[in-house]
Write a structure and sequence with these properties.
10 helices; about 220 residues; mainly alpha
Amino acid sequence: MRNTEPTSADRAYTTVKELIVSGELPGGELISEGQIAARTGTSRTPVREAFLRLAAEGWMRLYPKRGALIVPIAPDEAAHIVDARRLVETGSLAAFADDAATRSAVADLMRASLDRQRALADDGDAHRFAAEDADFHTLVVTRGANPLLSTFYSGLRDRQRRMTSNSVARNPEAWASIVDDHTRLTALVEQGDVAGFEVALSRHMAATHSLPYSRGLS
């Protein structure tokens, strides 16, 4: 039987990636294999393998004998992620906008997520809040019933979490604004208002991530 237990390299990869996504390792920071080996209780060899994998995915840049630089979120990367999310989320709502039962079911799930978001905001738990934020937006995509779009969107989740973690850490007032925006988006989903949803979503993401709102939407 094939061994499915995670290897030391897998554990090092998961640990470092989570530190990056959560914002605990900020963009621009230089880290060493020794630091991570000590933190994870492994040798440097699996950490080196994890670093190579993370570098291939664009999360870090390797500098021989110096360490690994955590790649900051570039302004154009943030804008591209927001553009992709707007297209996928709006298209997914359009796919079930005429189905009142599905709209109602999704809205109920979104309201349950909103309750969790408020509790996490009250606790000041930025990492879990960012994860719940990503799950909230995924609810619409999942009900769009397009497996290709769902797979593509899931690939954006970690980068979305990182952007949100950075935003709430940088601006404490963002917590309440995000929840307010999500409440508005939930109502638009329940109404099946695709055009209104696209406008509200675009404005929400631009405000949350400090990007210009230049979609020409009104």
